[in-house]
Design a protein that fits this description.
With 144 residues, the protein is α+β, with helices and mostly antiparallel strands. 40% of the residues lie in helices and 32% in strands. It has a single domain, classed as Nuclear Transport Factor 2, Chain: A (Roll). The chain has helices at 2-51, 55-58, 75-78, and strands at residues 81-84, 88-92, 102-112, 115-126, 129-142. A hairpin with a 2-residue loop joins β3 and β4 (115-126). The longest helix is centred in the N-terminal third of the chain and has 50 residues, at 2-51. The N and C termini lie far apart (82 Å).
Length: 144
């Protein structure tokens, strides 16, 4: 009897180990995609928020998206940029083993020495890259 239980226990142990490996791989996949969103949005936003340069933004639009140039005329009155808060919002990353594409609707706040600005963005992830679907900069009130 003992000899027949050993292969069964070994099989269960292997199945549990494979399930854990799959779970860890999926968790790492999701974290990598979410972290790449932060890096992607910061890379697009900093040139725009520091210098008013929208070129990186327009180089990463999703197919078929026509985006008006963000109104950043206020930047010269608010500079220098002190801090860009972390992006927060709804980020949907499908399982590594499922289908679909990651998407995000997020926002952040840019803190300048003379005011703030809120930024809202929507993006999708396909073909290994994030692509912008919406991007808006909303000037806050000047600092008193």
């Amino acid at each position: 009897m003992k000899s027949s239980r050993l292969p069964m226990i070994a099989g269960v142990a292997v199945a549990i180990a494979l399930a854990l490996i799959a779970l860890i791989a999926d968790t790492l996949h999701r974290a990598r995609i979410e972290n790449s969103l932060q890096d992607f949005l910061n890379g697009l936003s900093l040139p725009l928020l520091e210098r008013g340069d929208p070129a990186p933004l327009f180089g990463h639009l999703d197919a078929g998206v026509e985006l008006p140039s963000p109104d950043v005329g206020f930047i010269t009155r608010y500079l220098p940029l002190i801090e860009l808060s972390p992006w927060e919002g709804d980020v949907q990353v499908p399982s590594l083993y499922g289908s679909g594409q990651a998407s995000a609707i997020v926002s952040t706040r840019a803190h300048y020495s003379r005011g703030t600005a809120d930024i809202q963005a929507a993006a999708v992830h396909h073909e290994g890259q994030w692509h912008i679907r919406q991007y808006e900069v909303i000037a806050g009130p000047p600092a008193q």
